[in-house]
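Anyone up for a design puzzle?
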């Protein structure tokens, strides 16, 4: 993010390529000429790298074959609450923070409007996936649920887990029934540092989340300066250390 670039590494951690000129801006084109602004989330599928270009309020696509960068959603300006499907390049987004491919499209955290969104590249449209746009913690049907600065995303099957940062919560959207459920967290601006059963666990402004196998989550508990392990099978939270086992 600080270099306004996407960096590709090999398994040893050596830099393979940098995409982006390093100058903050919104410009499409070849890898070394294109410009990003504080990109946060990236995800890849077979053909492309998808980028949550947070500072530009856009979603960008990097073609794996050519390295060319293309803006696929957003106008470059901060947008209002997402609603029904609308033209992607005419719809302003608000601080898209993370992104995951799903079903031929991508799902993204529209942190600035406290929503999750969906991009359909074939149709060239974006729409609300979950969240009314009101900042709060409320579960239920996706259209009625209330989120608070969703940030990191992790997809396992049809379960979309997300770090709901301002509620210091770990939540999940079931894409089969389109319902939001809170796994850990109690309310807006409630936070702490507590391990144990999910119902009692506390986080503090988590920003990153990733699947570890099918039954565990790794959470970057940012303001506690800790990586936490959520065991979905046991329903518990622990600090990550060298002694855990994962099914």
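Challenge accepted. My sequence:
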């Amino acid at each position: 993010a600080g270099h306004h670039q996407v960096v590709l590494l090999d398994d040893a951690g050596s830099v393979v390529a940098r995409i982006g000129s390093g100058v903050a801006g919104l410009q499409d084109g070849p890898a070394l000429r294109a410009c990003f602004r504080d990109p946060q989330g990236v995800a890849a599928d077979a053909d492309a790298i998808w980028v949550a270009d947070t500072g530009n309020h856009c979603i960008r696509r990097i073609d794996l074959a050519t390295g060319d960068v293309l803006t696929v959603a957003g106008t470059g300006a901060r947008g209002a609450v997402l609603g029904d499907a609308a033209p992607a390049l005419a719809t302003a987004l608000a601080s898209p923070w993370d992104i995951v491919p799903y079903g031929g499209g991508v799902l993204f955290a529209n942190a600035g409007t406290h929503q999750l969104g969906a991009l359909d590249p074939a149709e060239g449209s974006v729409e609300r996936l979950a969240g009314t746009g009101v900042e709060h913690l409320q579960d239920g049907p996706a259209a009625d649920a209330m989120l608070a600065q969703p940030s990191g995303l992790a997809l396992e099957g049809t379960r979309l887990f997300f770090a709901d940062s301002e509620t210091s919560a770990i939540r999940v959207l079931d894409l089969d029934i389109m319902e939001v459920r809170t796994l850990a967290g109690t309310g807006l601006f409630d936070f702490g540092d507590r391990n144990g059963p999910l119902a009692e666990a506390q986080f503090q402004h988590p920003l990153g989340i990733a699947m570890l196998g099918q039954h565990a989550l790794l959470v970057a508990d940012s303001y506690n300066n800790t990586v936490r392990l959520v065991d979905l099978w046991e329903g518990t939270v622990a600090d990550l250390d060298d002694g855990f086992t994962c099914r």
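A detail worth pointing out: Residues 115 and 131 are 5 Å apart (CA to CA).
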